Request: fold
Amino acid sequence: MVIDLDRCTACQACVVACQTENNIPLADHGDSECGRGISWMRLASFPDGEHGTRPSLRLIPVPCMHCEHPPCVKVCPTRATQTGNEGLVGQIYARCIGCRYCTTACPYTVRQFNWKKPEWPEPMQDALSPDVSVRPRGVVEKCSFCHHRLQRARDLAQMEGRPLRDGEYMPACVESCPAEAMFFGDLDDPRSIVARLTDGPRAFRLLEELGTKPKVIYLSKGESGGDV
Amino acid sequence: VETFDDARLLAPIETTRPRFWFFISTLLIIGLWGAFAWWTQLRRGLSVTGLNSPVFWGLYITNFVFFIGISHAGTLISAILRLAHAEWRRSITRAAEVITVLVLFFGMGCVILDLGRPDRVLNVIRSGNFTSPLLWDVTSVACYLTASTIYLFLPLIPDIAILRDRMPSRRWLYRPLALGWTGSEKQRRRLDRAIAVMAIIVIPIAVSVHTVVSWVFAMTVQPMWHSTIFGPYFVVGAIFSGIAAIIIAMAIIRKAYHLEDYLKPIHFNNLGLLLLVMCLLWFYFTFAELLTTYYGGEPMHMVVFLSKTEGKFSPLFWTMVVTCFVVPFALLANRRTRTHVWGTVVASVSVQIGMWLERFLIVVPSLSSPRIPLTAPSYIPSWVEWSLFAAFVAMFILMYAVFTKFFPIVSIWEIREGREHSVDEVTTRVLSYLPEASHE
Reply:
């Protein structure tokens, strides 16, 4: 995934799209107060500019980085989180024991815990997406890069007897971005748009120095580009 | 043969005063309150705790590390003293070993409390992932529990045999446990050998246990967790709090069962000296860890560092320094206070408070400052967490007290052996160190 911060308007359409697509429970006021709201895609705010002179905030959309060396996968005691064939880090809700070792090990803090039973207001209960399972209380969840969409694309490719092509599916956040700041595709395919975008000098990854090799790449020509 | 020791040491088992029942009931009430808290948590999930995102771990994990730390008291200290032929060990080993075996259950219990899905805990075996330090922990603690139970049981056998012969009403319990002990020369030789072997085996296991506990943190890349000295640092802290636990337990037993003749000020003094050594080691490790972090000055590490030394955790941090170092050092380095029972006891209570704070300050501040900013309130433990902590402590004391009503808390046969054999043995040993006297 590529996120062009020079185009991003921080409108949070991706956050909302993700919320609806993936049956993420709504956080009421109490939940947000105690820091228990769940979102797979959040806007992290980095203080930008010098203190006092030009105070401003830089907002960066942060989904799961789907690291190539994921710190979460190796610490899970029950193999409930694993890297799939396409390189996406998945979560097996039915196996997770809720020890939250992965949530503490993740340097991006993108993993979320179901502190309580997910609930929706009456009319919304019938509007849940049938493609995504509702997670029970007590397990960890996180951005799956809309794994259910991948599955559908993979099935289609298999039916037609061909390999999965670059750009054959995109997660809800990318699809919904009104500023067209988000791109999705196969980073291993040198001709893909994401591979070409990440080639330039604007590209950087979050916490690159930790060696996790995130598969979410940001583009920015701002001064603070390289060091966030 | 009935001896003076037998009567004194069996008294707690043979007679129980009303005060004991009052004590037990109080502990039971705290335990029941904890059961209610746990039921609340099972019903409503971990939302009844003060935990949040990003402070995913709090009191439960702190207590896990704390309890496992205390478990290092018994078996390890007892094994070292036995192997070193420290003769003053005889009246304290049992009291120490029981701590280990019992407290381990509560340490593991804390992890169960912390799980979002305790019903799935067996997944750890069913689909265990050995790259996870948490699984190393499960393995290591399971080994330690097994080994320390055997190590507690072996030296109990001759005492159980005494009880079997003395208390017909409890023969159903003591007869099978005594394993047909008659005290023959052959049995004694075998028992000595078995105890010696176990004493050696438990030492590396004990060291592995707290090393692995520290690795749960150190193997992540989180600031101030990812540290190479965490293994030995945790082991030192564990032995430190462990010795303090033995001293407190001994002081209570001494008073409650009037065993002043067996648990003498000299025992407290000797353990106090060990505690002093661990106190200095703890300070050395803490200083080394903090200075390295400070000098390196990595921004993310400094955020956590400053939150401890001058930020919102600073009251806890400086209390830790005072209770883990200043108070015990002052009391234990001074002969006048160390040679009194109260001196070592006050130092030990202070160490327990300090070491609990140390665990808390390892778990919470690192999680409170995530690398990618995330707005969240501070972590304040809820009544459920505090209640379960209190209940675990109460249930531990309760089980310990019940143990003293079934088994002698000071080893009878080892005291007897000390009187009958050791004096000569030590004389011969000391003479063997010296050059042969001339045979003119």
Summary: Confidence is low (pLDDT under 50) at residues 224-228 of chain A. The CA atoms of residues 78 and 96 of chain A lie 7 Å apart. The longest strand of chain A covers residues 42-48. DSSP finds eight helices and ten strands in chain A.
